[in-house]
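TASK: fixed-backbone design
INPUT:
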């Protein structure tokens, strides 16, 4: 983690920095860290660090331990199965609804996010790809007309996205992009069944890849 300047919302920047540290293993699952330690590393006061960590706590990524600090929670294969079970329940019917939605703002937002994902693929920029992937799925959920569902999925995604788990460890960005192209095209073609089936296949494949990663990590020597 690098020290931060003061050119935008400090809490948001702290949150983003901690998230990247989690994703790259600088903050390790199962380990205990102090707010003071993190704030010193980032070069900021404890208040924005605590506020960012409280957000991670609400997402189920960390847990505060009284008078000790904050512990990065581990994620198990069972956790992944549960989280994707929730996503399947919410996102598959939402994709069907999005394919018949009249919310052109969100449909355009989805299409714009897909174009950005395509550009990120050409530039081999996985961070940008992930950012627009989040927007892509969120736009579909909001096009379906239920903001509460979108918020629930955002919380489920946060528990996965902040870990060292990436489907791109097993497949290239170009392949992930094509999966999203199928979803994108089905929704814009106003084909509810194809849209639902494409989202279901995407989520099931992603779930299985991540579970296999966790199982491989657990069976590795020294794990």
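OUTPUT:
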């Amino acid at each position: 983690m690098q020290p931060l300047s003061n050119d935008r919302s400090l809490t948001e920047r702290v949150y983003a920095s901690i998230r990247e540290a989690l994703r790259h293993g600088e903050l390790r699952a199962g380990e205990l860290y102090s707010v003071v330690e993190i704030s010193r590393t980032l070069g900021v006061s404890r208040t924005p660090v605590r506020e960012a960590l409280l957000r991670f706590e609400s997402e189920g990524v960390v847990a505060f331990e009284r008078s000790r600090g904050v512990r990065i929670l581990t994620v198990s294969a069972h956790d992944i199965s549960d989280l994707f079970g929730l996503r399947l329940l919410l996102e598959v019917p939402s994709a069907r609804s999005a394919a018949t939605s009249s919310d052109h703002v969100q449909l355009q937002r989805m299409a714009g996010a897909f174009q950005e994902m395509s550009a990120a693929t050409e530039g081999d920029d996985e961070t940008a790809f992930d950012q627009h992937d989040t927007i892509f799925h969120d736009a579909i959920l909001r096009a379906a007309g239920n903001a509460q569902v979108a918020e629930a999925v955002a919380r489920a995604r946060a528990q996965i996205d902040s870990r060292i788990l990436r489907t791109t460890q097993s497949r290239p960005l170009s392949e992930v992009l094509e999966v999203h192209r199928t979803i994108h095209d089905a929704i814009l073609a106003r084909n509810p069944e194809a849209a639902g089936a494409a989202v279901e296949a995407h989520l099931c494949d992603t779930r299985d890849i991540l579970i296999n990663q966790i199982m491989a990590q657990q069976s590795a020597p020294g794990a």
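COMMENT: The chain has two domains: 10-72, 77-219.
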